[in-house]
Amino acid sequence: MASFLSAPNFELAATLDSGQVFHWQEEPDGAFSGCVGDRLLILRQAADGVLVEPADGVESAISYLRLDQDHQAVLDSFPKEDAVLAAAVAYCPGLRIIRQPYWECLATFLTSSLKQVAHIRQISLRVRRELGEPRELGAIQSSAFPTPSAVAEAGESRLRELGLGYRAGFVHRAALLLASGAMRLEDGEQLDDSELLEFLLQFDGVGEKIANCVRLFGYGRLGAFPVDVWIERIFRERYFEGREVPRKELAAFLVHHFGRYGGYAQQYLFHHARTSWGKSRSRP
DNA sequence: GTCCAGGAGAGGC
DNA sequence: GCCTCTCATGGA
Measured in whole angstroms, how far is the alpha carbon of residue A103 from the centre of its chain? Predict the structure, then answer.
């Protein structure tokens, strides 16, 4: 039995397939199945909303999809004179920043370095299937992301078998720290934005880019602005007339130009470029 | 076969 | 501080 969740101006498919999360499976009927934390949900786009199965999964769907936030306020905060951003928003206005559990967000982005989205997805699904707890709903199956203990116990060589390559050590060491209680990701909640950045940088394999992904997609710090190869390309070609922009200069520009919801702006720009700039990956 | 990917760390200068 | 090299792997 499904339950209807009212959500005007929301695009489910784009939100689940915009490089934030990597485990949602599209079913033959167009629904999406996947775990939200420990629980399997089936989500389906409807007019002005989402159908959620099971029906009592609505609350977690609202939180996960950030449907409890005034989205228009986010859009209204964007700089009005920015035509590049305006085009990206117009391309997919219903995109949301998902609220991900801290550990699966950190672990997934630790495996993302120097990987294409399709490959991150493949590894992410394999890790869930091999090490996570399986869940079922009718004929649909999915697995939760394995706990730090499960990953710690699996070991680095097992993670290498699953395709993580040199990232296996990063993920395994982070799992050991969390499973032992030596570090607790919940401790990041009360830190301010810059303290949280320093906190996350303590993990081996986490640099500024991955830390910003975790700040944005995990801790919901909507001003955090991850800079990856796509973002660099966008700014070089669309904002700086082909000029190579030093990281520091770019960071300074981002903070003052996009404001408190900069992370949202970043996600719009990233999604637009990645899905519409064509497969030729060079010039638009 | 070649190029590249939601990077980070170590080493050299 | 900045520059360069290296780290696995599979999709395009």
Answer: 12
**CB of A166 nearer than 7 A to strand B:** yes
Is A163's CB less than 7 Å from nucleic acid strand C? yes
Q: Is the CB of A119 under 7 A from strand B?
A: yes
Mean of pLDDT values over A253-280 = 90
Q: Could you tell me the two tokens for A241?
A: 């007339």
CB atoms under 10 Å from CB of A244, counted, come to: 10
**Nucleic strand C within 7 A of Cβ A275:** no
- How far in angstroms lies nucleotide C5's C1' from the CA of residue A250? 24
Summarize pLDDT for A40-68 with one digit per residue, the tens: 999 999 999 999 999 999 999 999 999 99
From the CA of A58 to the C1' of B5: give the distance in Å. 35
**Cα A59 to Cα A41: distance, rounded to the nearest angstrom:** 11
Name residues 56-115 of chain A with a Cβ under 7 Å from nucleic strand C: 114-115
Quote the mean pLDDT of chain A.
Answer: 95
Nucleic strand B within 7 A of Cβ A204 = yes
CA A112 to C1' C12 (Å) is 18
% of chain A exceeding 90 in pLDDT:
92
Read off the pLDDT of residues A84-109 as tens digits, 9 standing for 90 and up.
Answer: 999 999 999 999 999 999 999 999 99
